[in-house]
């Protein structure tokens, strides 16, 4: 999905990989390497490295937005880094921003549970399954969203961890597989 500035977006459900604490700290994964999203794309390990290095050298940061709206920043990402699993983010919803307070309430109620990255593709290839393999991305922002494209990047309730949510991930994968089977029938 591209916006008016040519940025693409990848969505990730929060909760299984993201948690929100009482003091509005959000922590988890905004993108997972090797996971096929609903658009058929797969992000390769290391895809964000050059972008994160460049941002750091320039003294800039990845923005935290509400629903990819550049007019609605709702917090700050204090830490954005790659590890062996994916793109890890940790930040704060800003209490002085009304939309951030609303976002915290919506997350707590389970009404919002998605993350989405805003980026430009620098380098991509096709893998052996015919999927677009994203090799290098220019990361601009990570948003809280209603509908994530990558089901495995979610925001969780307080105390939820990736380990305690494994069953929900497996159940979601089973339902997704069943949905695809029924769609083909």
Automatic annotation (TrEMBL):
Pfam family membership, one: Peptidase_S78
Lineage: superkingdom: Bacteria
Molecular function, one GO term: peptidase activity
UniProt keyword terms in alphabetical order: Hydrolase, Protease, Viral release from host cell
InterPro entries reported in the protein's UniProt record: Peptidase_S78_dom (IPR054613), Prohead_protease (IPR006433)
Presence of the UniProt keyword RNA-binding in the record: no
GO process annotations (BP): proteolysis
NCBIfam families in UniProt: proheadase_HK97
Protein name: HK97 family phage prohead protease
Source organism of the structure: Roseovarius bejariae
